[in-house]
Every structure is written in structure tokens, then in C-alpha cells.
Design a protein that fits this description.
Low-confidence stretches: none
Helix content: 40-55%
CATH class of the largest domain: Mainly Alpha
Bound molecules: nicotinamide-adenine-dinucleotide
Strand content: 15-25%
Structural class: alpha/beta
CATH topology of the largest domain: Dehydroquinate synthase-like, alpha domain
Radius of gyration: 20 Å
Number of strands: 11
CATH architecture of the largest domain: Up-down Bundle
Length: 355
């Protein structure tokens, strides 16, 4: 199996490297860097203390822990890390190592994008979502009280290094939710990947089958990398990655980011997007039913939508909606996506009926 995927962005190109030896690979990178700041979370450090302690003993390595959860993705966290790096005389030649899930990656990447007008950073994703999605593509940023990811920059890492042994301590609910993004790649880009996930779902969820997971991660990375490489500035092509996200984001907001994990909201959002693909986007009945059946196999917290109009208010507040009209991702068949400008708020409200 080819264990490197290239993200082809001209002078900003980098590799996604599959390497099951986090410590060795990090030591090699630390050896060629000046000062190194490892940004992670205490919970991750404790789970893998034997590995981290080796790195902590290196003379040019410092650790910074951020809190868990979306609240940690804040301007206050950014200022705290920048202040610490300034006090410790970090400079333009310093490197940031982001070791964590999407919260760590987005935050550490944003620090790297602005500290001294931009320094190098390496992504070591430790969640399935970060391995297949958030660590790739260079989107960094933090939340404002008024909304998620409202401040950010595109700043590409120097490398993404995937050690799947980090997944051993990830709760089952997180694995389940992250598979949403993998099955999304199947829906929008690769029917074979979709079928592979459906066939192996119970094996992945029951015993985190490493061989199957690695195959899914590799193919997901290839797809994200292909899409990002063709559309780094997030114009039309990259938009297909938002399949299920318009309604998914609205559901996250409606339930105040408490009831649903991001991936779980996207799974619900994809049910609605499948419905709209079938009713207005040419998706035939057979693929529609196949898609719905696949999504129904995921364990999801039950939700009770009391006020559909309020969900529509969240859709209207969405960053992408505010920019212009709704650009809604539909699939005319499993494995292909299109961006439609014909979906109205009424259509979206109607689609909530499938939940
Ligand atoms: N930049 C992008 O392109 C992009 C894409 C998708 C999502 N995101 C962002 O990613 C974030 C979600 O990422 P996430 O799902 O990885 O969540 P997360 O980073 O919050 O991690 C989930 C939980 O798992 C814990 N954890 C991490 N690694 C662990 C491990 N190996 N073992 C045990 N516990 C571990 C974390 O502390 C956290 O409590 C959101 O903020 C979202 O906006 C960014």
C-alpha cells in the first residue's frame, strides 16, 4: 500500500504520511527545527504519556495544553499561546506541532498562520475526523461567540503525519461520528468507498479493525487531497465537501452544540440532502434507499425538532448562505456530486420531514 499521499498545491505542496511511529517521526523533525511548540490536550498527553515524555525531554521542545471542546477554539487561546511563544523567544524559524483532533489542529494552525506573520507547522491528527478531514487543506481558525469558525486563515501545514495507533483510545461515539465524513466522500466522489464502508461498518465500530480503518483513512485522504488540490481557495469544487453540512450545521446550532457531535449532525444533514437529491436532483429511488439504509446503520442520539422554522433561521445565518444564495450540494448518483442553486428554504424545510 502506498503510504504517502501528496497534496499538490505548487509551492505549498506537502505530504500526508502514514507512519505508525509518532515518537520516531517527531524526534526526526524536532532534530531539524529550532524551537518546537507541541500543542495538544491534557487528555491526549495522559493517554500517551510514555510517548510524549520522550519528546518532552528534548531541549528544544515545549508543550502547551489547550482545553477540550469548542470553547478552546477562541481568540483568548490564540493570544495565550502567542504570548507564551514570545516570552520564550520563539521566532520565524520555530515550528508548531499540532497533536490532536480538529480543535487542536484548527487552533494550532491558526497560531502558526499569524505568529510572526506565519511559521511552519506539522499536523499529527489523533482523531479519525482529523485524520480524514480537518488536518488536510490548511483551513485554520477559531470561533467567535457569535458563531463557529468565523475567524480564520488558509495556512498549509508542512506535513500531515498519521499514526493510527492514536485511535486506540478514541471513544466509540467519536469513531462512529467521524465515519460520517468518510461515508460523505463515498456519496460525493467514490461509490466503491461508499460500498466498502457499508460492508465493513459493524467490524469497524465493534472492534476498530485497524486494516479496514487504514484503508478508509487512506482513500479519504486521497479524495480530500484531490479536491483541495484542484480548488485551494474554496470555490465551486471544494464546495462538494459540504454535502450534508448546510442542514447539519443548522442542527448543531439548534441543539446548541450539546446534543450532537459534528459528525452526528452531518449524518442527519446527509439524510435531508439525500431526500433533496432524490426529489430535485435526479437521484434514483434505488440509490436513495441504499443511501438512507447506510445512514440508518449509524447510532445517533434521537432528536426532536419542535420548530422547523427555527432550523431555517440557523440555515439563513450560515456563513455560506450569507455570502449569497444557497449553494446546496446534491448527488445525482452515489459517487457524484453537483452544486445546485435551485434549492429554496421551503425545500430545506420539507426535507426535515425525513428526520
Ligand atoms: N479545518 C478543517 O478543515 C476542519 C474540517 C472539519 C472539522 N473541523 C473542526 O474540527 C473540530 C472537530 O474535530 P474532532 O472531531 O477531531 O474533535 P476534537 O478535536 O474536539 O476531539 C474530540 C474529542 O476527542 C479527544 N481526543 C482527541 N484525540 C484523542 C485520542 N487519540 N484518544 C482519546 N481522546 C482523544 C479530544 O480531547 C476531544 O475531547 C471542530 O472544531 C470543527 O470545526 C475543521
Amino acid at each position: 500500500m502506498n503510504n504517502t499521499v501528496k497534496v499538490d498545491l505548487g509551492k505549498d505542496s506537502y505530504d500526508i504520511i502514514f507512519d505508525d511511529n509518532f515518537v520516531e517521526s517527531a524526534i526526526a523533525l524536532v532534530a531539524i527545527s529550532s524551537k518546537c511548540m507541541f500543542i495538544t490536550q491534557e487528555v491526549i498527553y495522559k493517554e500517551f504519556e510514555d510517548k510524549f515524555s520522550v519528546l518532552k525531554s528534548l531541549p528544544n521542545v515545549e508543550f502547551h495544553f489547550i482545553d477540550q471542546g469548542e470553547e478552546a477554539k477562541s481568540i483568548e487561546t490564540i493570544v495565550e499561546i502567542c504570548d507564551k511563544m514570545t516570552a520564550m523567544q520563539y521566532d520565524r524559524s520555530s515550528t508548531i506541532f499540532a497533536v490532536g483532533g480538529g480543535v487542536v489542529g484548527d487552533t494550532a494552525g491558526f497560531v502558526a498562520s499569524i505568529f510572526m506573520r506565519g511559521i511552519n507547522y506539522i499536523q499529527y491528527p489523533t482523531t479519525l475526523l482529523a485524520m480524514i478531514d480537518s488536518s488536510i487543506g490548511g483551513k485554520t481558525g477559531v470561533n467567535l461567540k457569535s458563531g463557529k469558525n468565523l475567524i480564520g486563515r488558509i495556512h498549509q501545514p508542512k506535513a500531515v503525519i498519521i499514526d493510527t495507533s492514536f485511535l486506540s483510545t478514541l471513544p466509540e461515539r467519536e469513531i462512529n461520528a467521524s465515519l460520517a465524513e468518510a461515508i460523505k466522500y463515498g456519496f460525493i466522489y467514490d461509490r466503491d468507498l461508499f460500498n466498502y464502508i457499508v460492508e465493513n461498518m459493524s467490524d469497524i465500530l465493534n472492534n476498530k479493525n485497524d486494516t479496514i480503518l487504514k484503508k478508509i483513512i487512506l482513500r479519504s485522504c486521497q479524495i480530500k487531497s484531490e479536491v483541495v488540490s484542484q480548488d485551494v481557495d474554496e470555490n465551486d469544487l471544494r464546495m462538494i465537501l459540504n454535502f450534508g453540512h448546510t442542514i447539519g450545521h443548522a442542527l448543531e446550532g439548534y441543539f446548541q452544540y450539546k446534543t450532537l457531535l459534528h459528525g452526528e449532525a452531518i449524518l442527519y444533514g446527509m439524510k435531508c440532502a439525500l431526500y433533496l437529491s432524490h426529489t430535485t436532483g435526479g437521484l434514483n429511488k434505488k440509490d436513495y434507499n441504499k443511501g438512507l439504509k447506510a445512514l440508518s446503520a449509524f447510532t445517533l442520539p434521537s432528536i426532536d425538532i419542535k420548530d422547523k422554522a427555527e432550523i431555517i433561521e440557523f440555515v439563513k445565518r450560515d456563513k455560506k448562505f450569507r455570502e449569497s444564495q444557497i449553494k446546496f450540494v446534491l448527488i445525482p448518483e452515489i459517487g457524484k456530486a453537483t452544486v445546485s442553486k435551485n434549492i429554496t428554504l421551503n425545500h430545506i424545510e420539507e426535507s426535515l420531514g425525513v428526520l
